[in-house]
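re the bet — no i am not wrong, look at it urself. input seq straight from the record:
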Amino acid sequence: MGNPSDRVDMLKRIIASESLLLSIGDVAKAIDVSPRQLRYWEKKGYVKTNVSESGQRKYTYPALIQAGNIAHYLNKGYTLAMAAKKAEDNRKLMKMLRIFLQSRVNKGYEIENGYEIDLGEVKNLPAEEHLLIDVMQDGESYFKIKKTND
C-alpha cells in the first residue's frame, strides 16, 4: 500500500463499502450517548441498524454518522424530531458527496508536504486538463487545473 494510487483505490473501496459494522456499545461510546438512547432512536426510525445472526444490533459507518449528527443537534438544543430531520438532510448531502468521491477520485500522487488527488476532466476544457486538489499536511488544500499524461 505504499503507492499513493493504491491508497486512493483503497479509499474508494472503503467509501463504497457498507460492510464495516460497529456494535451498539462502540457507537454509543463514539458519540457519547447511551445504548438505550440509540435503541430508542432506532425504534423511532431515526437510525437504521443491521441485526447479526446472534441478534446483536450492528451499525454501519453511515448509521454512526447519522446517530452522531442526531446527538450533535440534540446537544445544540433541538428536539429529537428536528435533530433527526437535520441529520437526515446531512445524510443526503453525505450520500451525494460519497457518490462524487467514488466517481471522481481517479488517482493520487505524493507531493512535497502532502498529496495531490486527480478529480478528472473539467467540463469545457480539453480532456487532458484535469481538476486536482492538493491536500497539504498542514491542513491547507487548494484546487488547480493541470495537464495530465492520461
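see?? Residues 80-104 form the longest helix (25 residues). told u. also The two ends are 22 Å apart (CA to CA). so pay up
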